[in-house]
Amino acid sequence: MPETPEQSPARTVNRRSVLGTIGAATVGTAVLSGRAAASSDYEQINIVDAGADNTGSESITPVLDDVLGNNRKIYFPPGEYYVDEGIRFTDFTKLWLVGDDATIVPAPADEFDGPHYIFKLGTYYAPGDWLRIGDLTFDFRADNTGLRAIQAQVNDCYIHDVDFVGEHDAGTHGPMLVDIIDPDKIAAVDRVSMPDGGAWTEDTDRDGNPDVRWGPTGFIVSPYHKGKLWVRDCEIGGFPDNGLYDSGGDGRVVVRGGRFENSNSANIRLDGDESTIQDATVVVDNNRERDTNQRGIRLDGGSNCWVDNCEIVLEEPNGHAITVMPDCSSAKIENTSITLNSSNESNDAIKLSSGSGDVTIDEVDIEMNCPGQAIEVKEGDGDVLIEETTITGDASGATGGRHAIRCERDGTRLYGNTIKQPGPGYRRTLTLTANDCVVANGSYESTHHPIINDGDDNVISKITARSYDGYEGIKLVSGSINLYWSTIYEGVRGDYDGYGNEFPS
Protein backbone atom coordinates (compact mmCIF):
# COMPACT_ATOMS: atom_id res chain seq x y z
CA MET A 1 0.00 0.00 0.00
CA PRO A 2 2.16 2.88 -1.25
CA GLU A 3 2.38 6.23 0.47
CA THR A 4 1.75 9.32 -1.65
CA PRO A 5 4.03 12.02 -0.13
CA GLU A 6 2.95 14.70 -2.52
CA GLN A 7 -0.40 14.81 -0.78
CA SER A 8 -0.73 16.83 2.42
CA PRO A 9 -1.72 15.14 4.62
CA ALA A 10 -0.33 11.96 3.10
CA ARG A 11 -2.41 8.81 3.18
CA THR A 12 -2.42 5.33 1.79
CA VAL A 13 -4.24 4.37 -1.37
CA ASN A 14 -5.03 0.64 -1.27
CA ARG A 15 -6.89 -1.99 -3.26
CA ARG A 16 -10.16 -0.72 -1.85
CA SER A 17 -9.75 2.81 -3.22
CA VAL A 18 -11.81 2.04 -6.29
CA LEU A 19 -14.67 0.87 -4.11
CA GLY A 20 -14.19 3.98 -2.00
CA THR A 21 -14.60 6.35 -4.92
CA ILE A 22 -17.85 4.67 -5.86
CA GLY A 23 -19.18 5.33 -2.37
CA ALA A 24 -17.93 8.88 -2.20
CA ALA A 25 -20.95 10.32 -3.98
CA THR A 26 -23.32 8.83 -1.43
CA VAL A 27 -21.22 10.11 1.45
CA GLY A 28 -21.19 13.60 -0.06
CA THR A 29 -21.61 16.87 1.75
CA ALA A 30 -24.51 15.63 3.86
CA VAL A 31 -22.13 13.46 5.92
CA LEU A 32 -18.86 15.38 5.65
CA SER A 33 -19.49 19.13 5.43
CA GLY A 34 -23.01 18.86 6.78
CA ARG A 35 -21.81 17.40 10.10
CA ALA A 36 -19.39 20.08 11.12
CA ALA A 37 -18.94 20.30 14.89
CA ALA A 38 -19.33 23.45 16.95
CA SER A 39 -15.66 24.25 16.39
CA SER A 40 -15.18 25.43 12.80
CA ASP A 41 -11.75 23.84 12.42
CA TYR A 42 -12.89 20.21 12.10
CA GLU A 43 -15.71 18.13 10.67
CA GLN A 44 -17.50 15.49 12.70
CA ILE A 45 -18.41 12.32 10.83
CA ASN A 46 -20.62 9.49 12.05
CA ILE A 47 -19.00 6.48 10.39
CA VAL A 48 -22.28 4.53 10.30
CA ASP A 49 -24.04 7.40 8.59
CA ALA A 50 -21.14 7.37 6.14
CA GLY A 51 -21.95 3.76 5.24
CA ALA A 52 -19.95 1.61 7.66
CA ASP A 53 -21.50 -1.62 8.90
CA ASN A 54 -21.69 -1.79 12.71
CA THR A 55 -22.88 -5.39 12.95
CA GLY A 56 -19.47 -6.95 12.28
CA SER A 57 -20.62 -8.48 8.99
CA GLU A 58 -18.71 -6.37 6.46
CA SER A 59 -15.32 -4.70 6.49
CA ILE A 60 -15.38 -1.00 7.24
CA THR A 61 -12.06 -0.34 5.49
CA PRO A 62 -13.63 1.12 2.30
CA VAL A 63 -15.56 3.64 4.36
CA LEU A 64 -12.50 4.49 6.45
CA ASP A 65 -10.64 5.16 3.21
CA ASP A 66 -13.30 7.67 2.28
CA VAL A 67 -13.88 9.52 5.52
CA LEU A 68 -10.42 9.66 7.06
CA GLY A 69 -9.08 13.15 6.51
CA ASN A 70 -7.38 16.11 8.06
CA ASN A 71 -9.25 18.03 10.77
CA ARG A 72 -11.93 15.36 11.06
CA LYS A 73 -13.53 13.74 14.07
CA ILE A 74 -14.60 10.20 13.19
CA TYR A 75 -17.31 8.94 15.54
CA PHE A 76 -17.99 5.21 15.99
CA PRO A 77 -21.52 4.62 17.39
CA PRO A 78 -22.27 1.47 19.42
CA GLY A 79 -21.65 -1.76 17.53
CA GLU A 80 -18.99 -4.04 16.08
CA TYR A 81 -16.72 -2.98 13.21
CA TYR A 82 -14.94 -5.64 11.18
CA VAL A 83 -11.59 -4.75 9.59
CA ASP A 84 -9.49 -6.86 7.24
CA GLU A 85 -7.02 -4.21 6.08
CA GLY A 86 -5.25 -1.36 7.79
CA ILE A 87 -5.29 2.38 7.30
CA ARG A 88 -2.16 4.55 7.04
CA PHE A 89 -2.53 8.32 7.45
CA THR A 90 0.39 10.71 7.93
CA ASP A 91 1.36 14.37 8.12
CA PHE A 92 -2.05 15.49 9.35
CA THR A 93 -2.89 18.48 11.51
CA LYS A 94 -5.73 17.12 13.66
CA LEU A 95 -7.57 13.82 13.85
CA TRP A 96 -10.09 12.35 16.28
CA LEU A 97 -11.14 8.68 16.47
CA VAL A 98 -13.73 8.32 19.22
CA GLY A 99 -16.22 5.63 20.06
CA ASP A 100 -19.29 4.94 22.15
CA ASP A 101 -19.47 1.26 23.14
CA ALA A 102 -17.73 0.56 19.82
CA THR A 103 -15.70 -2.61 19.21
CA ILE A 104 -13.26 -3.10 16.35
CA VAL A 105 -12.90 -6.75 15.32
CA PRO A 106 -9.90 -7.66 13.14
CA ALA A 107 -9.86 -10.50 10.65
CA PRO A 108 -7.68 -13.52 11.46
CA ALA A 109 -4.05 -13.10 10.45
CA ASP A 110 -4.36 -15.34 7.38
CA GLU A 111 -7.27 -13.23 6.11
CA PHE A 112 -5.87 -9.79 6.91
CA ASP A 113 -4.62 -7.98 3.82
CA GLY A 114 -1.23 -6.26 3.88
CA PRO A 115 0.87 -5.23 6.89
CA HIS A 116 -0.79 -6.14 10.16
CA TYR A 117 -1.92 -2.84 11.66
CA ILE A 118 -5.36 -1.26 11.92
CA PHE A 119 -4.42 2.39 12.41
CA LYS A 120 -0.96 3.61 11.41
CA LEU A 121 -1.19 7.30 12.15
CA GLY A 122 1.89 9.33 11.37
CA THR A 123 5.47 8.23 10.88
CA TYR A 124 8.66 9.48 12.44
CA TYR A 125 9.45 11.43 9.24
CA ALA A 126 5.86 12.61 8.57
CA PRO A 127 4.18 12.74 11.98
CA GLY A 128 0.64 13.79 12.64
CA ASP A 129 0.50 17.00 14.61
CA TRP A 130 -2.38 16.25 17.00
CA LEU A 131 -4.29 13.01 17.60
CA ARG A 132 -7.04 11.85 19.92
CA ILE A 133 -8.24 8.25 20.21
CA GLY A 134 -10.71 7.25 22.89
CA ASP A 135 -13.47 4.91 24.06
CA LEU A 136 -12.73 2.05 21.68
CA THR A 137 -12.39 -1.71 22.19
CA PHE A 138 -10.26 -4.00 20.03
CA ASP A 139 -11.42 -7.61 20.11
CA PHE A 140 -8.69 -10.26 19.83
CA ARG A 141 -10.73 -13.11 21.29
CA ALA A 142 -10.96 -15.13 18.07
CA ASP A 143 -8.16 -17.55 17.23
CA ASN A 144 -5.19 -16.22 15.25
CA THR A 145 -6.00 -12.57 15.83
CA GLY A 146 -3.80 -9.85 17.19
CA LEU A 147 -1.96 -7.10 15.39
CA ARG A 148 -0.78 -3.57 15.95
CA ALA A 149 -4.09 -1.86 16.50
CA ILE A 150 -2.65 1.63 17.10
CA GLN A 151 0.67 2.92 15.81
CA ALA A 152 0.85 6.65 16.50
CA GLN A 153 3.95 8.68 15.68
CA VAL A 154 2.76 12.20 16.30
CA ASN A 155 3.78 15.50 17.82
CA ASP A 156 0.99 15.47 20.39
CA CYS A 157 -1.80 13.10 21.39
CA TYR A 158 -4.32 12.02 23.97
CA ILE A 159 -5.22 8.32 23.87
CA HIS A 160 -7.64 7.19 26.54
CA ASP A 161 -10.04 4.43 27.56
CA VAL A 162 -8.93 1.89 24.97
CA ASP A 163 -9.45 -1.80 25.78
CA PHE A 164 -7.83 -4.79 24.13
CA VAL A 165 -9.73 -7.98 24.96
CA GLY A 166 -8.48 -11.47 24.23
CA GLU A 167 -4.97 -12.84 23.78
CA HIS A 168 -2.83 -11.37 21.00
CA ASP A 169 -2.03 -14.68 19.26
CA ALA A 170 -1.13 -13.90 15.62
CA GLY A 171 2.65 -13.81 16.12
CA THR A 172 2.97 -10.23 14.89
CA HIS A 173 3.73 -6.85 16.46
CA GLY A 174 1.98 -6.01 19.72
CA PRO A 175 -1.16 -3.92 20.14
CA MET A 176 0.26 -0.44 20.53
CA LEU A 177 3.15 1.89 19.66
CA VAL A 178 3.21 5.58 20.60
CA ASP A 179 6.03 8.05 19.88
CA ILE A 180 5.98 11.79 20.53
CA ILE A 181 8.20 13.20 17.79
CA ASP A 182 8.30 16.87 18.85
CA PRO A 183 10.78 17.16 21.75
CA ASP A 184 8.86 20.13 23.19
CA LYS A 185 5.46 18.40 23.44
CA ILE A 186 3.83 16.49 26.33
CA ALA A 187 1.23 13.81 25.54
CA ALA A 188 -0.73 11.22 27.51
CA VAL A 189 -2.03 7.67 27.32
CA ASP A 190 -4.66 7.05 30.00
CA ARG A 191 -6.56 3.92 31.02
CA VAL A 192 -5.43 1.61 28.24
CA SER A 193 -6.08 -2.02 29.13
CA MET A 194 -4.58 -5.16 27.57
CA PRO A 195 -4.84 -7.68 30.43
CA ASP A 196 -4.91 -10.86 28.32
CA GLY A 197 -1.38 -10.42 27.00
CA GLY A 198 0.14 -12.12 23.98
CA ALA A 199 1.31 -15.53 22.82
CA TRP A 200 4.87 -16.53 22.02
CA THR A 201 5.34 -16.62 18.25
CA GLU A 202 6.29 -20.31 18.34
CA ASP A 203 2.90 -21.02 19.87
CA THR A 204 0.97 -19.28 17.07
CA ASP A 205 0.11 -20.19 13.48
CA ARG A 206 2.97 -17.92 12.31
CA ASP A 207 1.05 -16.34 9.45
CA GLY A 208 1.19 -12.80 10.77
CA ASN A 209 2.93 -10.13 8.72
CA PRO A 210 5.55 -9.42 9.93
CA ASP A 211 6.53 -12.49 11.90
CA VAL A 212 7.93 -11.34 15.25
CA ARG A 213 10.90 -13.35 16.46
CA TRP A 214 9.98 -13.95 20.09
CA GLY A 215 6.51 -12.55 20.38
CA PRO A 216 4.75 -9.22 20.80
CA THR A 217 5.47 -6.37 23.17
CA GLY A 218 2.34 -4.97 24.78
CA PHE A 219 2.98 -1.22 24.51
CA ILE A 220 6.18 -0.01 22.88
CA VAL A 221 7.78 3.42 22.68
CA SER A 222 10.39 3.39 19.92
CA PRO A 223 13.79 5.10 19.61
CA TYR A 224 12.07 7.84 17.57
CA HIS A 225 10.30 9.13 20.70
CA LYS A 226 11.62 12.62 21.57
CA GLY A 227 8.99 14.31 23.73
CA LYS A 228 7.39 13.46 27.06
CA LEU A 229 4.72 10.77 27.35
CA TRP A 230 2.53 10.17 30.39
CA VAL A 231 1.28 6.59 30.78
CA ARG A 232 -1.42 6.64 33.46
CA ASP A 233 -3.57 3.93 35.04
CA CYS A 234 -2.91 1.37 32.32
CA GLU A 235 -3.19 -2.41 32.64
CA ILE A 236 -0.87 -4.71 30.71
CA GLY A 237 -0.93 -8.50 30.98
CA GLY A 238 1.68 -11.10 30.08
CA PHE A 239 3.55 -10.47 26.83
CA PRO A 240 6.58 -12.46 25.60
CA ASP A 241 8.81 -9.44 24.90
CA ASN A 242 8.14 -6.84 27.62
CA GLY A 243 4.89 -5.31 28.81
CA LEU A 244 5.58 -1.57 28.58
CA TYR A 245 8.86 -1.02 26.73
CA ASP A 246 10.55 2.33 26.14
CA SER A 247 13.21 1.09 23.74
CA GLY A 248 15.56 4.04 23.89
CA GLY A 249 15.87 7.53 22.49
CA ASP A 250 15.93 11.09 23.74
CA GLY A 251 12.35 11.20 25.02
CA ARG A 252 10.91 10.74 28.48
CA VAL A 253 8.24 8.30 29.70
CA VAL A 254 6.41 8.82 33.00
CA VAL A 255 4.36 5.90 34.32
CA ARG A 256 1.74 6.83 36.92
CA GLY A 257 -0.38 4.10 38.49
CA GLY A 258 -1.55 1.02 36.64
CA ARG A 259 -0.99 -2.72 36.87
CA PHE A 260 1.63 -4.66 34.93
CA GLU A 261 1.85 -8.43 35.17
CA ASN A 262 3.54 -11.57 33.88
CA SER A 263 5.48 -10.17 30.92
CA ASN A 264 8.78 -11.73 29.96
CA SER A 265 12.03 -9.75 29.95
CA ALA A 266 10.39 -6.94 31.95
CA ASN A 267 6.92 -5.78 32.88
CA ILE A 268 8.08 -2.15 32.73
CA ARG A 269 11.28 -1.33 30.84
CA LEU A 270 12.37 2.29 30.50
CA ASP A 271 15.33 4.07 28.93
CA GLY A 272 15.79 7.83 29.07
CA ASP A 273 16.63 10.77 31.29
CA GLU A 274 14.10 11.32 34.09
CA SER A 275 12.21 8.13 33.29
CA THR A 276 9.75 7.70 36.14
CA ILE A 277 7.50 5.00 37.60
CA GLN A 278 5.14 6.10 40.37
CA ASP A 279 2.29 4.35 42.18
CA ALA A 280 2.45 1.29 39.90
CA THR A 281 1.70 -2.35 40.78
CA VAL A 282 3.81 -5.09 39.21
CA VAL A 283 2.87 -8.75 39.64
CA VAL A 284 4.35 -12.04 38.45
CA ASP A 285 2.06 -14.91 39.41
CA ASN A 286 2.11 -17.04 36.26
CA ASN A 287 5.07 -18.62 34.45
CA ARG A 288 4.31 -20.08 31.05
CA GLU A 289 6.73 -22.64 29.65
CA ARG A 290 8.68 -20.03 27.70
CA ASP A 291 8.55 -17.34 30.41
CA THR A 292 12.02 -17.66 31.89
CA ASN A 293 12.92 -14.11 32.95
CA GLN A 294 9.94 -12.05 34.08
CA ARG A 295 11.59 -9.03 35.66
CA GLY A 296 9.45 -6.49 37.44
CA ILE A 297 11.12 -3.22 36.42
CA ARG A 298 14.19 -2.70 34.26
CA LEU A 299 15.91 0.68 34.02
CA ASP A 300 17.99 0.43 30.86
CA GLY A 301 19.60 3.88 30.74
CA GLY A 302 19.41 7.58 31.35
CA SER A 303 19.95 9.87 34.31
CA ASN A 304 17.70 10.81 37.24
CA CYS A 305 15.48 7.76 36.79
CA TRP A 306 12.96 7.32 39.59
CA VAL A 307 10.89 4.47 41.04
CA ASP A 308 8.54 5.75 43.73
CA ASN A 309 5.69 4.28 45.79
CA CYS A 310 5.40 1.10 43.76
CA GLU A 311 4.36 -2.39 44.82
CA ILE A 312 6.15 -5.35 43.24
CA VAL A 313 4.93 -8.85 44.09
CA LEU A 314 6.68 -11.83 42.51
CA GLU A 315 4.52 -14.77 43.55
CA GLU A 316 6.35 -17.00 41.04
CA PRO A 317 9.73 -15.29 40.77
CA ASN A 318 12.04 -16.13 37.86
CA GLY A 319 13.67 -12.71 37.42
CA HIS A 320 14.77 -9.74 39.50
CA ALA A 321 12.17 -7.32 40.84
CA ILE A 322 14.16 -4.21 39.86
CA THR A 323 17.28 -4.16 37.68
CA VAL A 324 19.40 -1.05 37.16
CA MET A 325 21.40 -1.64 33.99
CA PRO A 326 24.96 -0.42 33.19
CA ASP A 327 23.84 2.53 31.03
CA CYS A 328 21.72 4.02 33.81
CA SER A 329 23.89 6.85 35.15
CA SER A 330 21.67 7.73 38.12
CA ALA A 331 18.50 6.41 39.74
CA LYS A 332 16.47 6.58 42.93
CA ILE A 333 14.25 3.81 44.30
CA GLU A 334 12.10 4.86 47.24
CA ASN A 335 8.89 4.27 49.20
CA THR A 336 8.45 0.93 47.46
CA SER A 337 7.53 -2.56 48.66
CA ILE A 338 8.97 -5.69 47.06
CA THR A 339 7.94 -9.27 47.81
CA LEU A 340 9.59 -12.38 46.38
CA ASN A 341 7.81 -15.53 47.47
CA SER A 342 9.12 -19.07 47.64
CA SER A 343 10.94 -20.44 44.62
CA ASN A 344 13.75 -22.84 43.81
CA GLU A 345 15.38 -20.18 41.63
CA SER A 346 17.74 -17.48 42.83
CA ASN A 347 16.58 -13.94 42.15
CA ASP A 348 17.36 -10.48 43.49
CA ALA A 349 14.87 -7.93 44.72
CA ILE A 350 17.13 -5.08 43.54
CA LYS A 351 20.16 -5.65 41.34
CA LEU A 352 22.56 -2.82 40.57
CA SER A 353 24.48 -4.07 37.54
CA SER A 354 28.19 -3.68 36.94
CA GLY A 355 28.87 -0.26 35.49
CA SER A 356 25.68 1.41 36.70
CA GLY A 357 25.95 4.90 38.15
CA ASP A 358 24.69 6.70 41.26
CA VAL A 359 21.81 4.88 42.97
CA THR A 360 19.84 5.73 46.11
CA ILE A 361 17.60 3.13 47.75
CA ASP A 362 15.47 4.84 50.40
CA GLU A 363 12.60 3.53 52.56
CA VAL A 364 12.15 0.32 50.62
CA ASP A 365 10.52 -2.73 52.26
CA ILE A 366 11.72 -6.06 50.91
CA GLU A 367 10.39 -9.50 51.84
CA MET A 368 12.68 -12.27 50.57
CA ASN A 369 11.38 -15.82 50.64
CA CYS A 370 13.40 -17.23 47.73
CA PRO A 371 17.16 -17.68 47.35
CA GLY A 372 19.18 -14.68 46.29
CA GLN A 373 20.09 -11.20 47.44
CA ALA A 374 17.54 -8.64 48.50
CA ILE A 375 20.02 -6.05 47.22
CA GLU A 376 23.05 -6.86 45.09
CA VAL A 377 25.49 -4.01 44.42
CA LYS A 378 27.99 -4.72 41.68
CA GLU A 379 31.05 -2.60 40.94
CA GLY A 380 30.08 0.57 39.14
CA ASP A 381 30.74 4.16 38.19
CA GLY A 382 28.74 5.94 40.86
CA ASP A 383 27.91 6.20 44.55
CA VAL A 384 25.36 3.96 46.25
CA LEU A 385 23.29 4.91 49.29
CA ILE A 386 20.98 2.41 50.99
CA GLU A 387 19.01 3.94 53.86
CA GLU A 388 15.96 3.34 56.04
CA THR A 389 15.34 0.09 54.20
CA THR A 390 13.80 -3.02 55.79
CA ILE A 391 14.55 -6.57 54.68
CA THR A 392 12.61 -9.53 56.10
CA GLY A 393 11.58 -13.01 54.95
CA ASP A 394 12.65 -16.65 55.25
CA ALA A 395 15.10 -16.83 52.35
CA SER A 396 17.66 -19.62 52.56
CA GLY A 397 21.36 -19.03 52.16
CA ALA A 398 21.98 -22.50 50.76
CA THR A 399 21.91 -21.49 47.09
CA GLY A 400 22.08 -18.32 45.08
CA GLY A 401 23.92 -16.21 47.65
CA ARG A 402 23.86 -16.25 51.45
CA HIS A 403 23.53 -12.51 51.95
CA ALA A 404 20.52 -10.22 52.10
CA ILE A 405 22.83 -7.47 50.85
CA ARG A 406 26.00 -8.17 48.90
CA CYS A 407 28.09 -5.07 48.25
CA GLU A 408 30.99 -5.04 45.80
CA ARG A 409 31.13 -1.27 45.17
CA ASP A 410 33.67 0.87 47.00
CA GLY A 411 32.32 3.75 49.05
CA THR A 412 28.79 2.41 49.47
CA ARG A 413 26.89 3.87 52.44
CA LEU A 414 24.26 1.98 54.44
CA TYR A 415 22.36 4.09 56.98
CA GLY A 416 19.51 3.18 59.32
CA ASN A 417 18.58 -0.18 57.78
CA THR A 418 16.75 -3.02 59.53
CA ILE A 419 17.48 -6.55 58.33
CA LYS A 420 16.05 -9.76 59.80
CA GLN A 421 16.96 -13.00 58.04
CA PRO A 422 15.97 -16.08 60.08
CA GLY A 423 16.19 -18.51 57.14
CA PRO A 424 18.36 -21.66 56.99
CA GLY A 425 21.48 -22.41 54.95
CA TYR A 426 23.85 -20.01 56.74
CA ARG A 427 21.73 -16.99 55.83
CA ARG A 428 23.47 -13.64 56.51
CA THR A 429 22.45 -9.98 56.36
CA LEU A 430 25.42 -8.16 54.81
CA THR A 431 28.65 -9.03 53.04
CA LEU A 432 31.13 -6.30 52.17
CA THR A 433 33.70 -7.21 49.53
CA ALA A 434 34.19 -3.50 48.75
CA ASN A 435 36.45 -0.93 50.41
CA ASP A 436 35.78 2.36 52.20
CA CYS A 437 32.12 1.59 52.94
CA VAL A 438 30.13 3.02 55.86
CA VAL A 439 27.49 1.04 57.80
CA ALA A 440 25.71 3.09 60.47
CA ASN A 441 22.60 3.20 62.67
CA GLY A 442 20.95 -0.08 61.81
CA SER A 443 19.95 -3.52 63.04
CA TYR A 444 21.38 -6.68 61.42
CA GLU A 445 20.03 -10.07 62.53
CA SER A 446 20.39 -13.43 60.83
CA THR A 447 20.86 -17.15 61.37
CA HIS A 448 24.58 -17.17 60.58
CA HIS A 449 27.12 -14.35 61.02
CA PRO A 450 25.09 -11.22 60.29
CA ILE A 451 27.99 -9.23 58.81
CA ILE A 452 30.90 -10.58 56.77
CA ASN A 453 33.79 -8.27 55.94
CA ASP A 454 36.12 -8.96 53.02
CA GLY A 455 37.17 -5.38 52.21
CA ASP A 456 39.54 -2.75 53.52
CA ASP A 457 38.91 0.36 55.63
CA ASN A 458 35.20 -0.16 56.14
CA VAL A 459 33.54 1.77 58.98
CA ILE A 460 30.75 0.29 61.13
CA SER A 461 29.12 2.57 63.69
CA LYS A 462 26.12 2.54 66.05
CA ILE A 463 24.60 -0.72 64.83
CA THR A 464 23.30 -3.89 66.45
CA ALA A 465 24.35 -7.27 65.01
CA ARG A 466 23.02 -10.56 66.35
CA SER A 467 23.04 -14.17 65.17
CA TYR A 468 19.96 -16.25 66.04
CA ASP A 469 22.20 -19.35 66.25
CA GLY A 470 24.89 -17.80 68.45
CA TYR A 471 27.57 -16.98 65.88
CA GLU A 472 29.72 -13.87 66.20
CA GLY A 473 27.86 -10.80 65.00
CA ILE A 474 30.73 -9.79 62.69
CA LYS A 475 33.25 -12.02 60.93
CA LEU A 476 36.36 -10.68 59.19
CA VAL A 477 37.34 -12.99 56.34
CA SER A 478 40.02 -10.51 55.32
CA GLY A 479 40.52 -6.77 55.13
CA SER A 480 39.93 -4.32 57.95
CA ILE A 481 37.13 -2.50 59.77
CA ASN A 482 36.79 0.39 62.18
CA LEU A 483 34.02 -0.40 64.68
CA TYR A 484 32.44 2.27 66.91
CA TRP A 485 29.63 2.49 69.47
CA SER A 486 27.95 -0.74 68.34
CA THR A 487 26.35 -3.72 70.07
CA ILE A 488 27.73 -6.91 68.55
CA TYR A 489 26.35 -10.09 70.09
CA GLU A 490 28.96 -12.81 70.63
CA GLY A 491 31.71 -10.40 69.60
CA VAL A 492 33.82 -10.10 66.48
CA ARG A 493 35.74 -12.90 64.80
CA GLY A 494 38.98 -11.30 63.63
CA ASP A 495 40.97 -8.20 64.43
CA TYR A 496 39.53 -4.71 64.18
CA ASP A 497 40.12 -1.12 65.33
CA GLY A 498 37.60 0.97 67.26
CA TYR A 499 36.08 1.79 70.62
CA GLY A 500 32.83 2.27 72.53
CA ASN A 501 31.40 -1.15 71.63
CA GLU A 502 29.47 -3.77 73.63
CA PHE A 503 29.64 -7.54 73.12
CA PRO A 504 26.75 -9.26 74.95
CA SER A 505 26.22 -13.02 74.78
Structural summary, described in words:
- GO terms for molecular function: lyase activity.
- Pfam families: Beta_helix, Pect-lyase_RHGA_epim.
- This is Pectate lyase superfamily protein.
- Keywords: Lyase.
- InterPro entries: Beta_helix (IPR039448), Pectin_lyas_fold (IPR012334), Pectin_lyase_fold/virulence (IPR011050), RHGA/B-epi-like_pectate_lyase (IPR024535), TAT_signal (IPR006311).
- With 505 residues, the chain is mainly beta.
- It has a domain of 275 residues: Pectate Lyase C-like, CATH 2.160.20.
- Helix content is 4%, strand content 43%.
- It has 2 helices and 47 strands.
- The strands form 2 sheets. It has a 31-stranded parallel beta sheet that branches. Strands 5-7-9-11-13-16-19-22-25-28-31-34-37-40-43-46 form a 16-stranded parallel beta sheet.
- α1 crosses α2.
- The radius of gyration is 28 Å and the shape is elongated.
- The termini are far apart.
